[in-house]
Amino acid sequence: MTNFIGRMTGAAKLNVAIYEEVEADTSATGQAMAVVCLSAVAMGIGYTGGLGTPSVGEFLILVVLALSSWFVWAFINYFIGARLFPEPQTRADHGELLRTMGFAQSPRLLLLIGIFPGFGFNGTLGGVLGLVISVWILITMTVAVRQALDYKSTFRAGAVCFVGLVVSGALLNLFLGLLFGLGLFG
Known about the structure:
By secondary structure, the chain is mainly alpha-helical. It has one domain. The protein contains 7 helices and no strands. α3 packs across α4, α4 packs across α5 and α4 packs across α7. The radius of gyration is 16 Å and the shape is globular.
């Protein structure tokens, strides 16, 4: 069994064996949650561009939003991929998607580079880095979903991820709009 850091780096490197290991290890849900929390903190620190650290309250909001969106996106991907459009060999549960999709967020830790001059996300280098990491995470999510849903088709897994992202994003936005008067629909 691979250690926590090995799982994170393996997931970032698109190592299918790591995704299979995490999918099967029901005790890894806490580790996946830790990856989500660490990635939210890295995003909070990196997006400041070294101009200051977010408050404890802001970090807590980031972590709660990250955990909520992870949970909802995994559930929607499970519903779409395992219930609406399964392949014949698809056997999955929500926990498998939580674990694989949690580790798929490992590349987001690289957003910490935003604290260095020139890499803040209000500048060109930081913006490019943010875009590259976003695309990388969409790719790791596609691999995570493909493995968790036992898909043979990477395209199908990517479509499930994309639709799940759009639906979960809309739901989160709607929820924030109703709760705080924020968001596109608020």
